[in-house]
Amino acid sequence: MDKQPSQPVFHIGSIPVHGDLILAPMDGICDQPTRALFREMGSAVTYTEFINVMDVPARLNNLDRRIAFSPMERPVGFQLYGSQPEQFLTAAKLLLADQPDFFDINLGCSVRRVAGRGAGAGMLAQPQLLEETFHLLKAEIDIPITAKIRIGYDEEHRNYLEVAELLEKHGAAALAVHGRTRKQNWSVPSDWRPIREIKQRAGIPVIGNGDITSVAEIDKMFSETGCDAVMIGRAALGNPWLFSRVEKTELPKEEILAVIQRHWNAMAAFFGAEKASFTFRKHLKAYLDCPQFANLDYKPILNNLEPVEALKDALKDA
C-alpha cells in the first residue's frame, strides 16, 4: 500500500486525517473485515455501514457487529440515518459508549425504503429539519458531526449550496458530496461542478464522491473540484488497490489471489465460514472480474462454501 503522509492532509474537527482517499460507506459491503482491509490498503478514514437511529436503543439488527472496529481503523465514524432530530440525539448519546471518533449523518441514501420515508436523501427536501438535527447534535455531542449529501432531492431542487451552508453554520465538521440528486440513478453521470462550488464557499473539508473508477479519475476529481479528499464507492468493490493509487489491471494474478485469501480469512473469522461464504460472494465476483481471470468460469465458485479453495482448484484445472 501507499505510505500515508506523516502530516495531516486535513482535519475532521480536531481529528487529523493522514490521507486523501476514503472508502464510501456502503450497506451490505462495508463490514468490519472489509473496512479493515481497505484501511490497510490506503483508505484514510473508516465509515461504518449506515445505522438506523431507531435500532440503537435496543441494539437491533446486528448493531454490535455493524459498528465493530479495530484500533487500526481509526479515525472511525458511525454513520446514522433517520428523520427525527431527537432520535438522532438519543442514538448518538448511546453510541458514544462505543467510542467512535465522529458521527456522520447520512443525507445521501436514495433508496425508497430510506429516502421515501424522509430519511437519507429525503432529508434534503426539509432544510428546517436538517437545521434542527445539526443544531441539536452540535449542542449535545462532544465529538465532530459530519454529513454525506447529494446535490439535491431532484433536478428542480438542487439546493446543495443552501444545504452545505446550513450544515456548516450548524456545526458540521466536514461534508462528503455525491454528484447526483436523490432522483437520479447510476446511469446519469455524476456532476462534479456542485462539489467545486461547495468547496469554493466552504470553510470545512469537502470530500468529493461519484463515478471514480480509476487513478486518472481520482486525479481529475481533485483537479476539477479542489476537494480535500476523494471518496470511492462502487468501484472499490474488489479493488482495494485503488486506495494505493495502483491500477488493478497492472497487478499479477498472484497478488490478487493473495488479497482474496486475506479478505476471505478475515471474513470467515468475523462471521463464521458459512455466513461468510454468502457475504463474500459479491467481493469475490468483483475481484475476479478483471483481465487476469478472463478465461475463468467463476460462477460455480461463488456458490461454494469454501470459495477460495474452490478458486484455487479451478485455477489448477484451467
TrEMBL record:
<comment type="function">
    <text>Catalyzes the synthesis of 5,6-dihydrouridine (D), a modified base found in the D-loop of most tRNAs, via the reduction of the C5-C6 double bond in target uridines.</text>
</comment>
<dbReference type="InterPro" id="IPR013785">
    <property type="entry name" value="Aldolase_TIM"/>
</dbReference>
<feature type="domain" description="DUS-like FMN-binding">
    <location>
        <begin position="22"/>
        <end position="293"/>
    </location>
</feature>
<dbReference type="GO" id="GO:0000049">
    <property type="term" value="F:tRNA binding"/>
</dbReference>
<keyword id="KW-0694">RNA-binding</keyword>
<keyword id="KW-0819">tRNA processing</keyword>
<dbReference type="InterPro" id="IPR001269">
    <property type="entry name" value="DUS_fam"/>
</dbReference>
<dbReference type="InterPro" id="IPR035587">
    <property type="entry name" value="DUS-like_FMN-bd"/>
</dbReference>
<keyword id="KW-0285">Flavoprotein</keyword>
<dbReference type="GO" id="GO:0017150">
    <property type="term" value="F:tRNA dihydrouridine synthase activity"/>
</dbReference>
<feature type="binding site">
    <location>
        <begin position="233"/>
        <end position="234"/>
    </location>
    <ligand>
        <name>FMN</name>
    </ligand>
</feature>
<keyword id="KW-0560">Oxidoreductase</keyword>
<protein>
    <recommendedName>
        <fullName>tRNA-dihydrouridine synthase</fullName>
        <ecNumber>1.3.1.-</ecNumber>
    </recommendedName>
</protein>
<comment type="similarity">
    <text>Belongs to the dus family.</text>
</comment>
<dbReference type="Pfam" id="PF01207">
    <property type="entry name" value="Dus"/>
</dbReference>
<keyword id="KW-0288">FMN</keyword>
<keyword id="KW-0820">tRNA-binding</keyword>
<feature type="binding site">
    <location>
        <position position="148"/>
    </location>
    <ligand>
        <name>FMN</name>
    </ligand>
</feature>
<keyword id="KW-0521">NADP</keyword>
<feature type="binding site">
    <location>
        <position position="79"/>
    </location>
    <ligand>
        <name>FMN</name>
    </ligand>
</feature>
<dbReference type="GO" id="GO:0050660">
    <property type="term" value="F:flavin adenine dinucleotide binding"/>
</dbReference>
<dbReference type="InterPro" id="IPR024036">
    <property type="entry name" value="tRNA-dHydroUridine_Synthase_C"/>
</dbReference>
<keyword id="KW-0547">Nucleotide-binding</keyword>
<feature type="binding site">
    <location>
        <position position="178"/>
    </location>
    <ligand>
        <name>FMN</name>
    </ligand>
</feature>
<feature type="active site" description="Proton donor">
    <location>
        <position position="109"/>
    </location>
</feature>
